[in-house]
Amino acid sequence: MTQARITGAGPARVAVRPDGLPGLGLLIRDSMLIAGRHLRVLRGNPGRLIYPLLQPVLILVLFVSVLENLASVPGGLYRQFLIPGIMIQNVVLTAPVTGLALVRDADTGLADRFRSLPMPRSAVLTGRSASDAVVFFAQAVVMIGVACLLGFHVRTGLAGIAGIIGVAVGFGTALGITCAWLALIIRDVETAERALYFPFIPLAFVSSAYAPVGRLAGWLQPIARVNPVTSAVAVVRALANGGPLMVPVIHLAAWIAVLAAIPGALAVRRWQSSP
Amino acid sequence: MADPADDLVIDAAGVTKSFGSVRALRGVDLTVPAGLLAALLGPNGAGKTTLVRILATLLRQDSGTVRVLGRDVLTHPYAVRSGIGLTGQYAGLDEALTGWDNLMLIGRLGGLGRRAASQRAAELAERFGLAAAVGRSLRTYSGGMRRRLDLAASLMNRPALLILDEPTTGLDPGSRIELWSALRELRESGTTMLLTTQYLEEADRFADAVHVLDHGVIIDAGTPAQLKARTGVQVVDVLLAGQDAAAAVASLRGTVAPADLRLDAASRRLTIRARDGLGTLLAAARLLQADRIDVADISLRQPSLDEAFLALTGASRR
Prior knowledge:
The complex is a heterodimer of chains A (275) and B (318). Chain A has one domain (24-272). By secondary structure, chain A is mostly helical. Chain A has helices at residues 24-44, 47-67, 78-94, 96-106, 109-115, 123-149, 157-186, 189-195, 200-205, 221-226, 228-241, 246-272. Chain B has two domains: 4-229, P-loop containing nucleotide triphosphate hydrolases (Rossmann fold, 3-Layer(aba) Sandwich), CATH 3.40.50.300; 233-302, Alpha-Beta Plaits (2-Layer Sandwich). Chain B contains eleven helices and 14 strands. In chain B, a hairpin with a 2-residue loop joins β4 and β5 (71-72). In chain B, α3 (99-109) crosses α4 and α3 (99-109) packs parallel to α5. The chains are: A mainly alpha (275), B alpha/beta (318). Chains A and B meet through α1 and α5 of A and α2, β6, α3, α4 and α5 of B.
């Protein structure tokens, strides 16, 4: 290492980033850079994308094949009822990945590097969420494709399919942000790996994902009614089978806003404060 | 009106930081003028990393004021971050990316455009002997290569102040020399640097100013020559011929303060800080002779750097 000489900074000065103070433009730019980091990692390690795409396909095929003829629901085929439930359940069980990724990063030298760079504090979270949104998108596309092969019918056509994918991406991202906050509270990676799934198993099951709320055990019904999973599944079912859309969409939008905004702000604070 | 404080790249006063009941920093004053390579020297647990993390805006101090590059770290952390580069104890790199992608990511998050970042990345990769390796995943890098890439990453945005936390720990001698030559070049081009180290010899050879941190306070500061002049009193070595070291110690108590006397019982060697130089040697010899203590060897010598450091940190411990 004797070639060119290193050039440094010249006289001491504060060279504020030429693109100015952290504003929305900078947040978007830096989030894209962080998302690009994660997507590059996916490109270099394709297994990290392939397995999250294979697993929901496996679950979808198995669940539909095993359960399709077991139950009957009012007003249609159980398959049409079940597949939206499986899709949203998959979103719920994928969401902890966002939190685990963030907490794995949180105590590393790289996190310190990010904290010492003139970037908006929230870009690490929003960037990770953006790259995970790409994964949610890919999963939803693959699941819809396989579901259609299994005989799933979306009555509202292409717009409905786009809507279903949008629900998966939006709901998954919001849950992922919630997981980021929970994981950063737990802080220990291995504990988070074990603990994060706990709230999500009842969240997925105590809902209308597998059975109408009215058929659940009595004490579960009030919980299932307010469960955001019930709202998300209701929107997907309405898009697939027809039916009133307005009320479940408003419920779901409210849930997404709350789950992204409050835990999001708290997660950013936790991220910034190093131990 | 030029305020002298304007030339201070680091200006910290009365900095305290506690973690629960552990008082990591107990009122640190530290100033580093522009263009200097300053070393923060101290044993493990002295508070070096805590201080570095406060300067780099990673931690908030409990009390005291810290200005870096003229900006307050609590009120203007963003401006401070725009002007600093940090090389922490653990590499600030993504193991799953290539060296090139790491440099580009950090450069662009620091505010460089794509072209400026790739020019700078190429320049630094070349300078640090990584041109052939930047296309590979970091998982294939040796420890030394990873350190060099980490330093290169810290330099992507041409920081006015480079902060390095124990940059030479764990490096082989060759890599250490390479690192120091890079830091000297940077200083010539005007970059101010603060680095922490446990190695007095490094601080002595390379730093313009040394700040000795022990138990959360700066106990001495100055050029290496000043520090040695202040603490580097000569040393009398006494090698005892007999077994009764306790008697020898008792005998010397007459002229030597307990703090200036160290006994290594295993080698039966007494070390005395010779505050009077030859006078201390003569006084010690007379006392030992009067008490009929057998001495195999007695000599006066210059202190080692370790002893100067121990004298400093030992004094603060009492």
